[in-house]
Design brief:
heterodimer; A: alpha+beta; 6-stranded antiparallel sheet; 3-stranded antiparallel sheet; 21% helix; globular; B: Elongation Factor Tu (Ef-tu), domain 3; 33% strand
Chain lengths: 126, 388
């Protein structure tokens, strides 16, 4: 199980990478992609939409299941990763390289876990 | 809760929780349970058994292996019931909608089994070993119900024996299946025709009933053997097939393969209120034969009001069972199964809709989790193997 040290994690299995300029990238954790299996489609919100922590910003369809994606931060979406729409399998092969959307105007969310905390959370829920 | 099991349900009970937690002591480990762990199976409870949704390589790779090389499946959860005695055939004729009177020894026949209303109790395979000696293979989810139904509807000199608990079943499917099994047995002893079988075949020295059947749309075999042989047989087949691309396949690939091949699944395309005629299984109902359970009701119903159709999604997304189907804004039916098919690389679905409402080429709309997705009506099956 890969857990990059520079990311933060939600209990609903999304990751966040905060950038210096107040933007943030979010994606699905390795645990999430592993549980979902082969991803077939993703549906994401539009650029310019604003969300609060915990809102649904899209869904991910694997062959065996479909799941909502909850944003781990509050803010406005500046970019949607269009490349992933045509190559959703990258979420399986490179979960931490496959960002779904970029947010701006993001404040640090204290409810998120660091790598160590997320690892502990996974161990507890398994 | 209905008595049917939808496998995707188990993978999605709670967001990415642990499967282990949901396993109850009631769920049976098949004789191949250790193999599932050995080959990194994601084991889940399914129809009262612990079976892998997928192995380490994933559903797509498993699906592709069966279409291009071979896959091996544990299908030991299926139920096996023996009917023996001078009145065995008479009872089978009364229980089943298909006509089994003209079956030769070593033949397999598919049939729905209906209730008095013409709904489907189960769909199953009937093996004729010899006169007065038949084997029925039933769906795991329906096993208890079937056993009770068959027991209570047999009469005369007919012995009922449920051998499910002692019988393991391994499916070896794909274009390389023959080449693989041939390494372990005398090919002269193998069944040649589709839907035929040979009993007492030694495969790797282990006694099996070998049947040229399957649920993948591909050529292949289903091997029935005693529980104690199962793991050894599995490993021998794996060893024989390792250089030919054989990999273990789970319930996920079993579902995508049968769906791509347009094959119905009990609990999805049929249930106790859907009749065989409605779901495109009319060929397996012989109204001309003597009385059978459901015949009067099916006769009274006349022409079916619904039909099973194939759909290919043209918008991005996957339709799932119970999604509604619309034509020109009017609901015409519901999706019974849907998935992404890895070989044809299309999201497809089967649906039960108002009869003659649509024809191939028509475009319908599917309500998929609140989104309206377009789908084209296509002929079934979505995929047909080029069998030599």
């Amino acid at each position: 199980m890969k857990l990059p040290e520079d990311l933060f994690f939600s209990k609903t299995h999304e990751w966040v990478r905060y950038e210096q300029d107040g933007t943030a990238f979010i994606g699905l954790t390795d645990h999430a992609q592993e549980a979902l299996g082969d991803v077939a489609f993703i549906n994401l919100c539009d650029e310019g939409e604003s969300f609060e922590f915990g809102d649904v910003i899209g869904d991910i369809e694997s062959i065996k299941a479909v799941t909502d994606v909850y944003t781990p931060v509050s803010g406005t979406v500046t970019h949607v990763n269009d490349e992933l729409l045509d190559a959703p399998e990258k979420i399986n092969s490179d979960p931490y390289g496959s960002w779904l959307v970029e947010f701006e105007g993001v404040a640090r969310n204290e409810e998120l876990l660091d790598a160590e905390g997320y690892e502990k959370f996974l161990a507890e829920t398994e | 809760m209905v008595d049917t099991v939808k496998w995707e349900y188990y993978t999605f009970y709670s967001r990415f929780g642990n499967n282990e937690r949901r396993m109850m002591v009631l769920d049976i480990k098949t004789p191949l349970y250790d193999m599932h762990l050995k080959y990194e199976g994601k084991v889940v409870p399914f129809a009262g058994h612990l079976l892998p949704i997928q192995y380490g390589s994933g559903i797509t790779a498993e699906h592709m292996a069966v279409r291009t090389a071979a896959g091996i499946f544990d299908v030991s959860h299926m139920g096996e019931i023996v009917l023996k005695g001078p009145d065995a055939l008479k009872n089978i004729q009364y229980l089943m909608t298909n006509d089994c009177a003209n079956m030769a020894d070593g033949q397999v026949r598919y049939s729905p089994m209906c209730n008095e209303n013409g709904g489907v109790i189960d769909d199953l395979l009937i093996y004729k070993k010899r006169d007065n000696d038949y084997l029925l293979v039933v769906n795991a989810a329906n096993h208890d119900k079937d056993a009770a139904w068959i027991k209570s509807h047999t009469s005369g000199d007919c012995v009922f024996e449920d051998i499910s608990a002692n019988t393991a079943q391994i499916a070896l499917q794909g274009p390389k299946a023959l080449e693989i099994i041939a390494k372990l047995t005398d090919v002269e002893t193998l069944p040649v025709k589709y839907y035929s079988f040979t009993d007492g075949v030694l495969v790797g020295g282990l006694e099996c009933l070998v049947s040229r059947t399957g649920y993948t749309g591909e050529d292949g075999y289903e091997l029935y053997t005693a529980n104690e042989n199962a793991a050894e047989l599995w490993e021998k087949l794996m060893a024989a097939g390792s250089d030919l691309g054989l990999i273990p396949c789970g319930l996920g690939a079993r579902d995508t393969l049968r769906l791509e091949a347009g094959m119905p699944l009990y609990g999805h395309e049929m249930d106790e209120v859907i009749t065989p005629f409605e779901t495109g299984l009319g060929f397996f109902v012989k109204m001309a034969k003597d009385d059978f359970i459901g015949k009067a009701a099916l006769q009274a119903k006349g022409e079916p009001k619904r039909e099973r159709i194939g759909l290919e999604l043209t918008d991005r997304g996957i339709a799932r069972s119970d999604d509604n189907v619309f034509l020109g804004g009017v609901k015409i039916g519901t999706v019974t199964s849907g998935t992404m098919c890895p070989f044809i690389k299309k999201a497809v679905a089967m649906a039960l809709v108002t009869r003659s409402g649509v024809t191939p080429g028509d475009v319908v709309e599917l309500d998929v989790r609140g989104r309206k997705l377009k789908a084209a009506v296509v002929k079934l099956p979505f995929y047909k193997a080029n069998k030599a």
